[in-house]
Design goal:
This protein is an alpha+beta fold. It contains three helices and eight strands, in the order H-E-E-H-E-H-E-E-E-E-E.
Length: 234
């Protein structure tokens, strides 16, 4: 018809269709990527939270286990303290305060054997002094044999602290008894050469496989101990 506009459909070629398709679909892909990133972020955060919760739970468990162990240890220490002989407090300052339950041995000296009490060397030393005694000082074979035999009868197969201690360091030999006299490096009282240099404090063991000889170890270990009545108190 004359004067009427005529329109023709022009089909899009393949490139135009791809471009249009891309133009239409891009926003959907971007949105999907955003969702995926958010999900990953949330998953990561949840994982971190769960990990922290697990670490906290483990820490709390360790704390309560340690608390239980400490409580048990304190109960044992309290029980051991109950076994200490009760000494008249007015006698403590006296040099010859006599503690009860002393055992007189064939060498004529009197001793206290700490079973069932065991302490590190420092606490053992303090415990003896609180009773007006000092850690045992077997300077010769006779004293050593007498105390070892009685200790073995009291508690077999355990170590017992004595009064000698290294006042030097691990590289310097300076082992002395409680009165300051030297325990010689070549003394026949030693069990073996190496033992006299490996630790700060001296003990013997009532292990059936060991003879009644002296050994040295770290002062920090808990062991039974032997207290001796000072010679001036006889």
């Amino acid at each position: 018809m004359e004067g009427e506009a005529v329109y023709h459909e022009v089909p899009l070629d393949s490139e135009d269709q791809k471009e249009k398709s891309v133009t239409i679909r891009m926003p959907k892909r971007v949105e999907t990527k955003k969702v995926e990133h958010r999900c990953l972020l949330i998953t990561f955060i949840v994982g971190i939270v769960l990990l922290l919760a697990a670490v906290l739970a483990s820490a709390l468990l360790v704390y309560f286990l340690l608390e239980a162990k400490v409580s048990t240890l304190e109960e044992k220490i309290a029980l051991n303290n109950d076994h200490f002989p009760q000494v008249d407090e007015t006698l403590i300052s006296h040099q010859c305060a006599i503690a009860p339950n002393l055992t007189q041995l064939p060498n004529g000296k009197k001793y206290f054997f700490s079973d069932p009490i065991y302490r590190n060397w420092t606490e053992a030393d303090k415990g003896c002094k609180r009773m007006g005694l000092h850690l045992a000082t077997p300077r010769d074979e006779a004293d050593l044999n007498a105390t070892w035999v009685e200790a073995k009868k009291t508690k077999d197969d355990v170590p017992w602290w004595l009064s000698a201690k290294n006042y030097g360091n691990e590289r310097k030999y300076d082992i002395r008894w409680q009165d300051g006299s030297e325990l010689e490096q070549n003394s026949t009282l030693w069990r073996a050469y190496g033992d006299k240099l490996t630790g700060g404090c001296v003990f013997f063991s009532t292990d059936p496989d060991l003879s009644e000889k002296l050994s040295g170890r770290s002062c920090r270990g808990n062991r039974f101990f032997i207290c001796e009545l000072p010679s001036e108190c006889y």
